[in-house]
Design goal:
The chain is of the alpha+beta class. It has two domains: about 60 residues, OB fold (Dihydrolipoamide Acetyltransferase, E2P), CATH 2.40.50.580; about 140 residues, Trna Endonuclease, Chain: A, domain 1. Helices cover about 15% and strands about 45% of the residues. It has three helices and 15 strands. Strands 7-8-9-12-14-15 form a six-stranded mixed sheet. Strand 8 and strand 9 form a beta hairpin. Helix 2 packs parallel to helix 3. The longest helix has 15 residues. The two termini are about 30 Å apart.
């Protein structure tokens, strides 16, 4: 996944969850924040932020804030990027062999899933979550309570109990991470939902990404550690 044109800026403030102010070559510009999460430990006034130029001349904001530096660690915060890079890896055959088709936004009954992965002998319903929260090498999700995330996991758990192949994939939007764990402190219910999903047979996976200022691609699988002592 690549952005057409990016610029380095200095992050100034985030008046609300949708927009940010940044200093771009001495001019204060308004950028759309492509992540409605908190990102408080990333978007600190004075940090270097990466703006992607929009190709749409009719937009109110000419830029999207897509990444920022946390020290020397570049973190992509584009909430659309995880699905895009995971989808690219699926199509490239980096995750599974013998894929027949990859169908985004697949429905089953009244539920919708990020991907339906069709192989010769099985179908895999998959949800993707982007991870931007890092703490001394540990990466966590979510950075704010997510009832929607709990609902997604319960849906996968129900499918797994019915015999369907399912997975939840945590795409870590940075290069360096030792392991992933649910953010029990922020949203214990979500962490418990991950545990129950794993117990039911849902594949719980986490991958780091190779991140540059104008690109991101899936990199390495890392361990998933749950509070019950299980490492996946």
């Amino acid at each position: 996944m690549k952005y057409n044109k990016v610029s380095e800026s200095i992050f100034l403030e985030r008046p609300n969850r949708f927009i940010a102010k940044a200093d771009l070559d001495g001019e204060t510009v308004t950028a759309h924040v492509k992540n409605t999460g908190r990102c408080r430990e990333i978007l600190i006034p004075g940090v270097k932020a990466i703006l992607a130029h929009s190709d749409n001349p009719n937009r109110k904001t000419a830029y999207d804030l897509v990444a920022a530096y946390k020290g020397d660690l570049l973190i992509n915060i584009d909430s659309q990027a995880p699905n895009q890079v995971y989808g690219e890896s699926l199509v490239n055959g980096d995750i599974y062999d013998e894929i027949i088709a990859v169908k985004p936004e697949a429905t089953l009954g009244k539920s919708r899933y990020d991907f339906l992965i069709e192989k010769w002998e099985e179908k895999i319903y998959t949800e993707v979550k982007g991870v931007t929260l890092e703490d001394n090498g540990t990466v966590l999700f979510p950075d704010a309570p997510t009832e929607r995330g709990v609902k997604h996991l319960r849906g996968l758990t129900s499918l797994a109990s019915e015999g369907y192949k399912t997975s939840v994939v945590f795409v870590v939007q940075m290069e360096r991470a030792d392991y992933f764990t649910p953010n029990y402190k922020m949203h214990e219910e979500f962490g418990i939902a991950v545990e129950k999903a794993a117990e039911a047979g849902v594949d719980v996976l986490a991958y780091t990404c190779r991140v540059t200022e104008d690109s991101m691609e899936l990199a390495d699988r890392i361990p998933v550690k749950l509070r019950n002592g299980i490492t996946l």
